[in-house]
Amino acid sequence: MRAATMTGQGWRSPALPPPRRLLRDPLFAFLIAGIAMFVAYAAIEARRTPPVAYTPEIERALVEEFEALAGRDARPADRARMKRDWLTEELLFREAIDRNLHLTDADTRKRLVDKVRYLIAGAPAEPDEAALVDYYSSNLSRYRGEPRTSFEQVFRAERPADAAALLQRLNVGSAVAGDDFWLGRDFPRYGDSMVRGIFGQPFVKALHAAPPGRWVGPIRSPRGWHFVKKREALPAALIPYDQIRDQVRQDLVMAETARAIDAALGRLREKYDVGE
């Protein structure tokens, strides 16, 4: 391209190439592609990190809340503090998200999951009595009480050297002294879960296998050694509805929430491309 030339009227700009020729120029195409990439990148970044804005709506809501709690109008200093506190929390929240704390912190993750669960399912309607009774009748296996056992024990902190002789004396009705046990000697109608929590699962199994009315042992537990006599064994039994109504209501509400979540999972799987 020739350099600009001087005329009697001053400098004359060089002639521009025709539009058709300009469109065919590789440098022009490269320039257009670069501009398009820059615009797309800017749009993506703007969507990924929206600006922090203390909007009039946010300020109005904070002022209304403050005035309702304080019982007075918000002063300029109050408004400045509200803005400062809001911006601080917003920036710290965004930094937490940027550090993926919502993915790695168990408590934060659970709170967010519970919040979204509520937003999806909403507050379920209060079930009426007919719905509760129907749910109870359809799920009777869930409302059976655990087996219960009545027994007494003689406790020794250490395994006695004469365990066989002590067992024989107990079974002929002789008195045998034991060490102090924090729950005493008698255990009337204790459920399996309670016995398990005190003595451990092996003790529960031994108690179930023991013949009623006879002393057995010593049975070892994490607390020591136990000579045990089972007096009564009650099998698992259905808990009457009126005794467990509150639990039935809670179970029904949770079941309704679970159904709403299940209905939304298909859409969420597609949205987040879940791999199987």
TrEMBL record:
InterPro entries named among the record's database cross-references: PPIase_dom_sf, PPIase_PpiC, PrsA_foldase
Pfam families listed in its UniProt record: Rotamase_2
EC number: 5.2.1.8
Annotated keywords: Isomerase, Rotamase
All residue ranges annotated as the PpiC domain in the record: 127-246
Superkingdom of source: Bacteria
GO molecular function: peptidyl-prolyl cis-trans isomerase activity
Reactions this protein catalyses: [protein]-peptidylproline (omega=180) = [protein]-peptidylproline (omega=0)
Group of enzyme by EC: isomerase
Protein family per UniProt: Belongs to the PpiC/parvulin rotamase family.
Protein name: Parvulin-like PPIase
